[in-house]
Amino acid sequence: MNRYLVIANQTLGADQLYDKVRACLAAGACTFHIVVPATPSTDNLTWVEEEAWAIAHERLDRALAWFRELGAAVDGEVGDANPLLAISDALRGDEFDHIILSTLPAGISRWLKMDLPSRVSATFGLPVSHIISEPDRHEAGS
């Protein structure tokens, strides 16, 4: 059984990510562990750590429900604001076969600006599927 580590934040509700989850489920028995890095909001010049954690928890709760609606066995956690540290923490606590990394498109993605897909692949030595998604469709207008 394949165990997937999913790393996403603003794209957790995106169709592109759910298409990937559906494909994984169709390929055979698997489980998912979602990590939502508690990254600061870009809406304000200042941010409060508690606010970032609250937003990440809301996104995680919605994602857990959506994954379960797809029939996936899933659990998750809010992680460090630094996505590399969040991944490292998750890998320290469990073993995974594959990492699914969902980012915003180039130009607006902070994770792409830090070359996160390449860094994750080089650092952790696991296969990485990089999904480029629009922001969570359920957050429009919120």
Give an overview of the whole structure.
The chain is of the alpha/beta class and 142 residues long. It has a single domain (2-25, 37-138), classed as 3-Layer(aba) Sandwich (Rossmann fold). Helix content is 41%, strand content 23%. It has 5 helices and 5 strands; from the N terminus they run βαβαβαβααβ. The chain has helices spanning 15-27, 49-69, 83-93, 110-113, 116-124, and strands at 2-7, 30-37, 73-79, 98-103, 128-132. It has a 5-stranded parallel β-sheet, with helices on both faces. α3 runs parallel beside α5 (116-124). The model has no long low-confidence stretch (mean pLDDT 90).
Question: Which labels suit this protein?
Answer:
5-stranded parallel β-sheet, 5 strands, 5 helices, Rossmann fold, globular
Tell me briefly what this model is.
By secondary structure, the chain is of the alpha/beta class. The protein has helices at 15-27, 49-69, 83-93, 110-113, 116-124; strands at 2-7, 30-37, 73-79, 98-103, 128-132. The chain has a single domain (2-25, 37-138), classed as Rossmann fold (3-Layer(aba) Sandwich).
